[in-house]
Amino acid sequence: MASNKTIITNNRFFIFAIMLLIFGVSIVWKLFAPTPYAPTSADRIVLHGNEGVYNVNEQMDVLVDKSGEWTLADVQSPPIHAQFQPASGKSAFGLTAGTYWIRTTVDNQSPLEQWVLRLNNSVIEQFDMYILGDQSHSPLPARIIEKANEHFYSYYFQLPAHDSVTVYMKVRINGSMIIPIELMDNNTFLGKLKNEYIFFGIYYGFVLLMAAYMLSLYVFNRMSVYLYYSLYIVFFSLSQLVWNGLLQELLGADSRLLTFLLRLFGNYESIDYFFFISSLWFGLLFMGKILQIEVYAPRMMIVYRALSILSPLVVAASFFHIPGYETLAILYESLFAVLLVISTIWCMYRGNPTARYVILAAIPFLGLAAPTILNTYSLMQESFLTHYGFQFGAIAEFLMFSIALSYQIRQARIDKENAVQEMKLNEQIQQTRNELLQNISHDIRTPLTIVQGGIQAMIHGVVIEPGGNDDMLKSMYDEVLQINTFIDHLFELSLLKQAHETSVLESTPFADWILSQFDSLQAMIQLAGLQSRCSISVNPQAVVHIHAHQIKRVLANLVNNACKFSPAGSTIHLSASSYKGHVLVGVGDEGRGIAPEHLDSVFDRAYKVDPADPKNGSGLGLAIAKEIIGLHSGTIWVESEAGSGSRFYFRLPVDAFTS
């Protein structure tokens, strides 16, 4: 219905919103995406006087340790040492678990001596660092290397000014081999940590607020869709907590909980996958509900159910340290993404308005998470966007889905209100129908009883006074006419709207037309032995668009009723006027009037103020008048007081004014 239409159902606004979101994602890419790697002939990192962050990946060599057993002495041996290859700016080296050796040379040409080497991957299994003098083949004293408490896999080390060292790193990862490494001075490191913690504080505060909001909606509405989304938010945030290293930092390396999790899952990456796959599982249940797959894409429901069964199995597999589990998880994620895109587009095509919100939520989420995915496949270099793209995308997604769920709440409330109104209307219609049937039954039963009694008297040869048979036959004939008239009025009332729509409305100058009608009505009033008084003050230029015969029928009905209920010698008042784009017609009498409790019902079908009064007709005349006036976009009403007569009015809109 038009009242339920929202701004998202407007195609132009929807397309504009898509373009706006794509533009916004493009701006973020422009600001935060990494610049393409520019090859350089330098074979070492040169630290200058200015503070800043140095990307180690651009000036480092990598070596795959397939056995995972090589020592520092092994990789320094000439046969293995020659196998090192330039990383060329890459930070991702494959999707499978393995061990890598990394080598880089640092030349300190700045006055700063305390530096921090940071590995921006908190789910690695092992990270060992060795610092060798430029001409040395053995590590420098261990005292110059100190693990930073502020961040996992960040190390302080002293590097004297104008000195040069070679750094070897051994990295073992059980999943995707992503090794983004940064080198920075201490002040830059602390400043960067401060900004990151501010960002994390805002992000996780927002996440907790959203999860609490969705959980409260579930508590008050008892709709599982809100519970699924709340759990999705919680588990997704926990996975990001592990990925960003905050869980390790908050709990500490000696935490019993962290020790238990590592014993249960084996490594940090498996913990991360457990929470992330769990979030996708609840996200799948949420999407099935919000997209109403059973209604809009029933065939696709088979795939949803299959993936819903597979989801807990993939989650449970993280407990058993299955070889290649990380690859299985990546395949599951890809299948989830493909199913989400196809089902959302299909449901939108089938007319589900909520699917449009899902699409608007998916654009920023996928657009901002894409750099992280591309970085995983070595298709994009490490940057702020590749590292935190999921968080930015999640914020946009949470906002859009909160709007979508608010839309569902509003729609559910509207549907509930409409259902209540429809139920009340049906009850009123049923009550009116019952009353109408009772009235019809009474109005037909009474004359039929008279006719039946007369026929039985004739059958049984009841002796009546001379000429009585003729009177009885005339009485029965009158009753049959009354039944036919009643049925004709009912039939006319049922077909009135159809007849009005198929008839041709006429543009009628109302002043001249009502004057001619009043002349005819005054003659009818005089034949009834009554007086008439006429008052016309209609703008001569007023034109109405009417079906003249139907309006004439209304006037005749009102005047006929006035004549029936007026005492002999009284006056019938006719009036017509125009004002504010309408014409007003009135018919008044000086009869006994209508009691206040009957005023709201006199226009109902088959309603009679006094059913025992022989002056009452079928009770349908005023109902027909109301229907006719309504079809002309007008209104009709009555004003009356007991003992003071009745005044019926109807008002019609003026179509135009002649010049």
Mean pLDDT: 80
- The percent of residues in helical segments reads 40-55%
User: Counting H and I runs of at least 4 residues, what is the number of helices?
Assistant: 17
| Global outline | elongated
Largest sheet: 6 strands, mixed
Based on CA atoms alone, the radius of gyration comes out at: 44 Å
Instruction: Characterize the quaternary organization of these chains.
Output: single chain
Distance between the termini: 41 Å
| Number of E strands | 19
Structural category: alpha+beta
What's the structural domain tally?
Answer: 3
* Unreliable stretches: 1-5
Protein described:
By secondary structure, the protein is α+β, with helices and mostly antiparallel strands. The chain folds into 3 domains: 2-33 and 190-420; 45-185, Immunoglobulin-like (Sandwich); 500-657, Heat Shock Protein 90 (2-Layer Sandwich). The chain contains 17 helices and 19 strands. The chain has helices at residues 11-32, 72-76, 78-81, 186-221, 224-243, 246-251, 256-265, 268-290, 293-296, 301-317, 325-349, 354-376, 384-459, 468-502, 510-527, 548-564, 621-631, and strands spanning 45-47, 53-55, 61-65, 85-86, 98-108, 114-119, 126-133, 145-147, 154-158, 164-173, 181-185, 506-509, 531-537, 542-546, 571-579, 582-588, 635-640, 646-653, 656-657. The strands form 4 sheets. Strands 1, 3, 4, 5, 7 and 10 form a 6-stranded mixed sheet that branches. Strands 2-11-6-9-8 form a 5-stranded antiparallel sheet. Strands 13-15-16-18-17 form a 5-stranded mixed sheet. α8 packs parallel to α11 (325-349). The model is unreliable at 1-5 (pLDDT under 50).
